[in-house]
Every structure is written in structure tokens, then in C-alpha cells.
Fold this sequence. Notes:
Blueprint: H1 2-7, E1 17-22, H2 23-31, E2 35-36, H3 48-59, E3 67-72, E4 81-82, E5 85-86, E6 96-101, H4 103-114, E7 126-129, E8 134-137, E9 148-150, H5 157-166, H6 173-189, E10 191-198, H7 202-210, E11 213-214, E12 217-218, H8 221-229, H9 236-245, H10 257-267, H11 274-278, H12 285-308, H13 321-333, H14 339-354, H15 363-377, H16 395-398, H17 406-417, H18 431-434, E13 443-445, H19 449-454, H20 459-462, E14 468-470, H21 473-479, H22 484-495, H23 498-505, H24 510-517, H25 521-540
Amino acid sequence: MAKAATDNKADFSKAPQPSVDRIEELASRILSGDILLPKFQRDFVWKKSQVLELWDSIAKNYPVGSVLLWRSREKLQSERSLADLEIAGTKEDYPVNYLLDGQQRLSTVCGALYWSGTDEKSRWNIAYDLRSKRFFHLDTLDSPPNHQVRVNWLPDPSKFFTQMARVGSEPDAEALQAAGKDLFDRFKDYKIATVTLLDMPMNDVGPIFERINSRGTPLTVVDLMRAATWSESFDLIDSIENILRSVEEKNFETIDKKAVLRNFSASAGGGFADSSIDNLRRFDVAQLTAASIKTMEAYKLAIDFLATDLSIPSSRHVPYVNQIVVLVEVFRLLPAPSSTQRLLLKQWFWKTAVNEYFAGWNTTDMLNDQRAAAQFANGDIESLNYGTSNPKSNLWRDQQYRQNTALSKILTLLLTFNAPVDLLTGQTIDSSRALHQANSKEFHHFFPRDFLLSKGVDPRKANALGNFVMLTAASNKKITNRAPSNYLKDAAEQLGTAFKVALETNLISDGAYAAAMEDNYDLFLVERSKTISKRIGELTGW
């Protein structure tokens, strides 16, 4: 027992190391090569206004957030120059500190402090006006007026106080000198919280890295691997973006980049998991380029299948992005599946969507799915059979409609595939417009929500998936909070024989309609859910 306790004991020697550092010191460590800037971004992405805002925050002693460093001997491609200055080289096998979070902030400080360029339009050509107490960009390389000081004079007390001496000739010299002293002291004293990850392998850094959010810009393992594999002739993000552009015509260009990276890893002979992705950094340019070509060809085939065989209008409507990952692997290994295999793939898509198989996709699942894809490609048609029965119909009664959830996407697809007709007007609803990500105006409650709330129905139950149909916004306004028995009677009289078509195309059975005419919401949900489940059964082969 004592040994087990020892084995499970956390290794606090490798725990993140917090510290509080002067911002000037952190900036100088970049130029000395002690802190390196991995190639996460192609270029500096902040606007000039953001650069000035950061300096204004420092001058006012506002917090600007912490920075995260990773101390490691791992080799990542990093920037070798900043603000027209060369970054010093590092010794072989000497640990360096990679800047994971705070790159834009520290680059801004370092660039402005140590800039010595010749472009007067540079974002680093910054000065501080002692009268207005604001930072601004200069448009000249000449020395500014006495009441203004260049930011790149701050690290050099001789230059800075020489300018302060010139201020003595100004009528408001005392106020200007006080403002100058305040600026200098603030800069010298300003400190920032720093957390350093110690001796962590890249596999462990990845999950931490993915959770970082710096000024609203999420950084992912894709960025980390870009820095690990980058060379003058290969850029991982360029490669992934080229793959996504190849499926842009079919509206699948918004697939998550990490999903593509999983396929990239598989194409290189690895797997979907982060541990396999990490191995990409050991590959040379020729191997990485070959993997990129294989991945692109597989994506074209898989996305054509989704768009053509399954009529999925875009990547935004795929219930789980990792369904795409497995499909791409199948098409990489089996570029031309038979008609039987294509049918089985369609059934697999719906089974894994409805069973919510990919909701908790873990490393073991990734390994099993990659193996199943290989077996399927080799003729084992049962390898992708992930389910044996249709989930209970109460799924559509108990779960709520939320636009971006997997089950809501499934219901949306089922309705649009049915070419729904508006219940009040009889007009065919424009499904392509309704499926647009930013437009949810055609999806409405069959039993009006306000009507249900007035009857004491719980709001969550009122929003049940089984209560949603496709209806134009204009028709929804006419319904407002009316009882179904009321508005459906009017609709039936107005549409005549077309009314039954409107009900059928919205997956409303005779039983569900009868319940609605009695304003019986519970019975309606039961009957509607049966119809949805029946349709799912047809698609899955259950």
C-alpha cells in the first residue's frame, strides 16, 4: 500500500513555476534568445491601435494578463528577428523558454523598446506625448519635439534623460518632467505574472496549449505542430488550409483544423491521437509533403460522399466533426467503395450520429476506429457496425432543440431532406436558406412555446426536439401563441388536400395530428417521436 501511494504521488518538481517578472526583463530575454517565439503566426497580427492600447495600459498600471512559458530542449522553429533586430542564437542542448501565451504582448513591448529600423511607418515607431499623456505613432525618423519621447529611449536612461533635460526650456517644464519621471518609473517597475512549464514533453504541453486563449485568439495543437515541423519549404498550416480550400466548393472549408491534422497524421503512417500527431515533427519535408497530398485526395473523396450520397450541405451540418475524420481515413484506404460499401457508410454515418458515439471520442476509440476503417477497406463490411438498434423514441421527447447540438442537426437534416411544406401557406420552404448557419428563422415550435408556458408546461419540455418543424417566419407570426387546434383548423381549411402533404413533409403523422387537434402535447410528442425514430430506422438500416 505504501508503494502504491508513492507511485501515485504527484511530481511537484515539474509543477508549473509561477513568478512575477519586470516586463523590461522579459523583453530583453527575447533578444538574448532565452525566450523564443515559436512560429505560431506567419506575421504580427495586432493592429497599430492594439499596440498603442497595450502601452497605454502599462503606463496606467493596468493588468495586461500573464504569460506562459515552456522550458524545454525540444526543437521548435522560432522567430530569428523582431523589430528589425536579430534574436541571439541559443546553445545546443541548452533549455530555452518557448513563449506559448503572450506572444503578441511581449512582441509589442520588445519591438517598441528596441526598435532601430529605418521605416518611418513601422508599427514600432512609437512616442509618448508628455502633455496629452498618450502614445502615438510617429511618421518620421527625426527626433520629436521636446514634450515627446520615443519609446525606444526608455531602456537607455542616457537618451531618455537627455530628452528630459531639453524639457527644461518649455513653459510647463515642471509638469512635463513629472510626467516623464512617472512614465520612466512605471516602465521600470511594471511587472507581469509568468508561469513556466518545466520539463514537459510536447504530448503533455498540447492539452494545456489548446486551452489557452490570448486576447480572444485560441491557440491549438495545430499551431504547436506548425512550429515543430516548419521549414522554408513546408508549412503545416499552409498545407491544412490548402486541403480545406480543396473542399470549399462544397462548403466544407470550415472543418476544424485539428480534425484535418488527425488525418494528416494517419496519412503519414500514424494515428488520430495526439501522441501520433507529435511524431510528425520527426518527419522530413518529403514525408510531410507526401502525407499532405494523400490527405487532400482523401478529403476530396470523403466530402464528395457527404455532399452527394448523404446530401449534407456543409461541414457545419455534420453532427460530429470526427465523423469526417473516420470517413476520410476510409476513403484514403478505399478510394472507390462499391455500392454496397457506400450504403453501409451512409448507415454508419446515421448510426454514429444518433447514438452520439463521437460525443466522447477518446484515444481508445480513435485507435479502434482507425483499425475498423482499415478492416472495412479490406472487405470486412461488419467492422463499422457500431450499433444494433434504434435509440428509444423518447430521445426526441427528452432532449431540447439547440441549433448547434448533434441531435438538433440530425432533426434539421431529416426535415430538409423531406422538402418541407409550410403548414399555413403550402409553399415549399427554401431548405438551403434555412440551413444557413446564421439563419434559424425557419425552425419553430409546432405547439407554440407561449401557449405551452401558459398551460404550465416546463420551458425545457416546450423546447423538446419533437416539437420543432420547419415554418416560415411569417407563418410563425400568424400562429403566435394560438392553440394548435385553432391554427391547424384554419390551415386545413385554407390548404385543402395540400394540408396533408404539409403535415407529412414535416414528419407529422396522423396520430400526432390527432393529438394536436386535442391540444394534447404529451401525446403529440409521443407520436411525433415515433415518426422521427421510424425515419432514422430507414436511414440506419435498423
